[in-house]
Structure formats: structure tokens, C-alpha cells
């Protein structure tokens, strides 16, 4: 019995040890599990934090994109409205003029130009610009209309000019142009080598492209050759030049240097005249003409040339280079500078074109009957015609008005058009240089003149409103 009890105690002791070991192992396993769980939890929390950060970044990017989109939309809307509302509206005296802007705005007439302080009661003349508007004024005057978006947000002022109805003779004939500059135009400055082999550029940083030299040492100068001679005769002493820059006159001092041939120079390229070929647009009832639809600019500086005087000559087109993609094409004319071929005097060069007085020979070119002008709000998208001279024949060719910009930034590009006439396309490929000034006619009214060709597609081009040409 004792022996039996001894073995029983031993067994219980062995079980107790095993239980302790198992419990220790279990604790180790539990600790390992807990440790793994903690590690997994840390990884999970880090992943969650990364996701939260990503979501915040995505949300911020989306908010930024939304803000940019809203700003772009608002800007586009503002630009669209600004271009849809012309700054100037011309209406004929005594006639009803209708136009549709179709914008969510109202207009209020706030002043009359010839009355000084307006006697119009506030809100007395209120116009809904979302609907068709009909205006009629019997007196020649100007009105100012204040435009308010949605009826309360001040947006833009529009000047309404009451003008006389006018008829013009469309011409469409090629003309040769000679213009004498008012002063000597500085095309640019350059270097030349002196007798010592050193390069000199005396006028650099003193004169610049677009300047007009009006005098030297207090004496007026108008001819390029005269200017060059006076510089050469300076003997190398400092000369005082009177120049016009950006509409302001000033004096500058330059010291001529001797070149390798022993002549004194300033190192400046100058020009005192310009020649070219264009198209006469119209002749009015007083024998005045308008042509080109854009001003004469210097080919090198692209600045509008200051004109002292100019002459129109009869010209013959001797060659036509057909336009194509990337090449606008060109009409080449032969100008004979003789008194027998003079057509008139150019008196004004502006961004709207060149203008002047016709002589009897030019008046003979205006054989067509005068037609009424068409205002910009009357122009329709669709068929129209241009009048130009190709292969010695002046005739109308079909075009299509594709867009009308009532308040375009560029005064010479208010009308967009495409040549559709197969005869003109076969000869010129569309619009070519030299056709600037060709009259645009629609529904029996004189609405504008061709001004530019689209280089990428010579079938397409731009035109100026005839009312803009008449405002020169």
C-alpha cells in the first residue's frame, strides 16, 4: 500500500511539473500572440493613417481642382459676356434698330452726351438684354447705357451713337501705295568695324526700333539721304538728335564713329518710305476713299508708320501666288510712279486703314451704284460676297460669314469668313496678300472689308466692320 502511495505521489508530481511547463508554454504563446497582435495592430494603424493622409491629399486636390474649375468657368463666363456686349453700338437716326444679345442682364440709359448732366430719371429707361431690343433715336447724339448683370451687378458701360445713314460705292480694285514717313523711322541698330578693326555701335542703347528721328542739331530732317550726309559731315563730334518715341519727343546725344572706309556713322538702320499693293474698299459721296482695312506698318518693326504724305497709284496685277496651308499666298502688282497713274492723295494712316481724296481717275473706278452700309448688329452668319479683282476682272465671289465678334479686342478682326467660291479658290486658294480692303457685302448692304488671311488655312480670313473704317 505504501509502495502504491509512493508511485501515486510521483505521478502527481510529474503531472504538476508538466502542467507548469504547459502553462509556461501557454503564457509564452499568449505573449507571442499578443506581441504579434500588437505588431499587426501597429501596421494596421499605420496603414489607416496613410490612407487617411492620402484621402486628405485627394480631398485637397479635388477641392483645388474644383476651385480652379469654378474660377475658369467664372472667367470664361465673364469673357463671354464681355465679348457679347459691344462697347459701342451705332444706330441710324430716325430708324428702328433691333439686336439680340441674349444675356442675363439689364441696361439703363444714364446720360446723353449733348446734355451735360443727364435729366433722365433713374430707372426710367430700363432694357431687358435677354430679349430682342429695338432702339430708335431721332436726333444725332450719343447715349451711355449702364449694363447690370442679373439686374443689379454693375458690369459695363455701352456707348450708343446715333449716326446718319450712309451709302458707299464698293470698289474692289487693286491700288499701288507709296507712303512717305513723318520723320525717319529707326528700323534697328547694328555694329560696324572701324579702321582699327574694332567693332563700334554708337547708337546702341540710345536709339531703338520704332523711334522716329525728326531733327539733327536743332534742324528738321525728313530724308534718309540727308540724315546720312549730316552724320558724315559731323566730323566725329557729338550730334543731338530729336526723336519721337511712343508719342513723346525728346533729345538724345550720339557720337558718330569712323568706319573702315573713313566715313562717320551711327550704326543705325533707317527708313523714310514704304510701298505696297492693296485693294481700294470704298468711295463716299464726297469723293473720299478708304482702303486696306488695316494700317500700313513697318515690315521690320511692326509699328504703325507715322505718315507725312502718301500717294495712290493705278497698278496692274502681274502674278498671283496661290495660297496653301502655311503659305498665305500673294498678289504681285507692278507700280509705275508716274503722274498719269496717280489715283489720289493719302491723308491718313490708322489702324482702320488708309484714307484720302480721290482724283477724277479714281472716281471713274467707282462705277457701281452706292449701297447702304450694314451695322455690325445686322450681320448674319451665312452667305455673303466679297468684291475683288483677280486676273484683271473685278467681280463678286461667294464667302460665308462664320463668326461675328461684336466687341473684339482686335478692331480688324470683327468678322470671320471662309471663301466658298470655286472660281476664286481655283485661282488664289482663298484669301491672299493684296486682297486686304476687298469689300464684304451681305443682303445688299456694305458690312466690311477683308483684312487678314488665316495662315494655316488660306480659305479663311478676317474682316473689319465698315462702321469701324468710317470712324477713322
Descriptive report:
It is a single chain. With 472 residues, the protein is α+β, with helices and mostly antiparallel strands. The protein folds into 3 domains: 88-165; 168-175 and 273-469, Beta Barrel (Thrombin, subunit H), CATH 2.40.10.10; 191-266, PDZ domain (Pdz3 Domain), CATH 2.30.42. Helices cover 23% and strands 42% of the residues. The protein is built from 5 helices and 30 strands. Strands 9-18-19-23-22-20 form a 6-stranded antiparallel β-barrel. A 6-stranded antiparallel β-barrel has the order 25-26-27-30-29-28. A hairpin with a 3-residue loop joins strand 6 (142-149) and strand 7. The longest helix has 83 residues, at 2-84. The chain is extended, with a radius of gyration of 40 Å. The N and C termini lie far apart (139 Å).
**Main sheet properties:** 6 strands, antiparallel, barrel
- Determine the strand fraction and express it as a percent band: 35-45%
Quaternary structure classification: single chain
Distance between the termini: 139 Å
CATH topology (level 3) name of the largest domain: Thrombin, subunit H
Placed side by side, the strands forming the largest sheet appear as 9-18-19-23-22-20
Number of self-contained structural domains: 3
Q: Regions with pLDDT < 50 over 5+ consecutive residues?
A: 1-8
Keywords:
alpha+beta, disordered N terminus, Thrombin, subunit H, 3 domains, six-stranded antiparallel beta barrel, 5 helices, Pdz3 Domain, 30 strands
Ordered list of secondary-structure elements with their pairings:
Blueprint: H1 2-84, E1 88-92, E2 97-99, E3 105-112, E4 126-128, E5 133-135, E6 142-149, E7 153-163, E8 167-170, E9 174-189, E10 192-193, E11 199-200, E12 212-216, E13 219-220, H2 224-232, E14 239-245, E15 248-254, E16 257-258, E17 264-265, E18 268-283, E19 288-291, E20 307-321, E21 330-335, E22 342-350, E23 353-358, H3 360-365, E24 371-372, E25 382-390, E26 393-404, E27 415-419, H4 422-428, E28 439-442, E29 445-454, E30 457-465, H5 466-469
Amino acid at each position: 500500500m505504501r509502495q502504491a502511495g509512493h508511485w501515486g505521489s510521483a505521478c502527481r508530481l510529474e503531472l504538476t511539473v508538466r502542467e507548469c511547463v504547459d502553462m509556461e508554454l501557454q503564457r509564452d504563446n499568449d505573449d507571442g500572440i499578443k506581441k504579434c497582435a500588437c505588431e499587426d495592430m501597429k501596421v494596421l494603424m499605420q496603414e489607416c493613417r496613410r490612407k487617411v493622409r492620402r484621402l486628405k491629399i485627394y480631398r485637397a486636390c479635388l477641392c483645388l481642382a474644383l476651385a480652379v474649375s469654378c474660377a475658369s468657368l467664372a472667367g470664361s463666363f465673364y469673357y463671354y459676356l464681355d465679348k457679347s456686349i459691344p462697347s459701342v453700338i451705332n444706330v441710324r437716326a430716325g430708324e428702328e434698330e433691333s439686336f439680340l444679345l441674349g444675356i442675363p442682364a439689364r441696361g439703363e440709359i444714364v446720360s446723353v452726351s449733348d446734355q451735360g448732366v443727364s435729366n433722365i430719371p433713374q430707372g426710367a429707361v430700363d432694357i431687358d438684354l435677354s430679349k430682342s431690343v429695338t432702339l430708335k433715336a431721332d436726333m444725332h447724339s450719343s447715349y451711355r447705357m449702364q449694363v447690370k448683370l442679373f439686374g443689379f451687378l454693375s458690369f459695363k458701360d455701352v456707348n450708343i451713337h446715333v449716326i446718319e445713314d450712309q451709302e458707299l460705292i464698293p470698289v474692289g480694285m487693286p491700288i499701288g501705295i507709296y507712303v512717305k514717313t513723318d520723320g525717319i523711322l529707326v528700323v534697328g541698330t547694328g555694329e560696324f568695324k572701324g579702321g582699327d578693326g574694332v567693332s563700334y555701335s554708337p547708337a546702341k542703347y540710345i536709339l531703338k526700333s520704332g523711334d522716329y528721328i525728326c531733327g539733327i542739331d536743332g534742324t528738321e530732317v525728313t530724308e534718309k539721304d540727308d540724315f546720312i550726309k549730316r552724320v558724315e559731315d559731323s566730323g566725329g563730334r557729338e550730334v543731338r538728335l530729336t526723336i519721337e518715341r511712343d508719342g513723346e519727343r525728346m533729345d538724345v546725344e550720339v557720337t558718330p564713329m569712323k568706319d573702315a572706309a573713313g566715313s562717320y556713322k551711327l550704326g543705325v538702320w533707317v527708313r523714310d518710305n514704304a510701298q505696297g499693293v492693296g485693294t481700294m474698299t470704298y468711295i463716299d459721296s464726297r469723293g473720299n476713299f478708304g482702303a486696306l482695312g488695316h494700317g500700313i506698318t513697318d515690315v521690320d518693326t511692326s509699328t504703325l508708320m507715322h505718315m507725312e504724305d502718301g500717294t495712290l497709284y493705278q497698278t496692274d496685277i502681274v502674278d498671283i501666288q496661290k495660297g496653301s496651308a502655311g503659305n498665305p499666298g500673294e498678289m504681285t502688282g507692278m507700280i509705275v510712279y508716274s503722274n498719269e497713274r496717280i489715283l489720289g492723295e493719302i491723308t491718313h494712316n490708322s489702324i482702320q486703314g488708309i484714307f484720302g481724296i480721290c482724283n477724277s481717275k479714281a472716281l471713274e473706278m467707282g462705277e457701281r451704284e452706292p449701297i447702304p452700309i450694314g451695322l455690325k448688329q445686322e450681320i448674319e452668319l451665312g452667305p455673303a460676297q466679297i468684291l475683288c479683282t483677280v486676273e484683271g476682272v473685278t467681280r463678286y465671289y461667294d464667302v460665308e460669314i462664320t463668326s461675328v465678334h461684336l466687341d473684339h479686342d482686335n478692331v480688324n478682326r470683327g468678322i470671320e469668313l471662309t471663301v466658298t467660291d470655286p472660281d476664286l479658290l481655283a485661282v488664289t486658294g482663298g484669301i491672299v496678300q493684296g486682297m486686304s480692303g476687298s469689300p464684304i457685302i451681305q443682303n445688299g448692304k456694305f458690312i466690311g472689308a477683308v483684312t487678314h488671311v488665316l495662315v494655316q488655312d488660306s480659305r479663311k480670313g478676317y474682316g473689319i466692320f465698315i462702321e469701324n473704317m468710317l470712324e477713322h
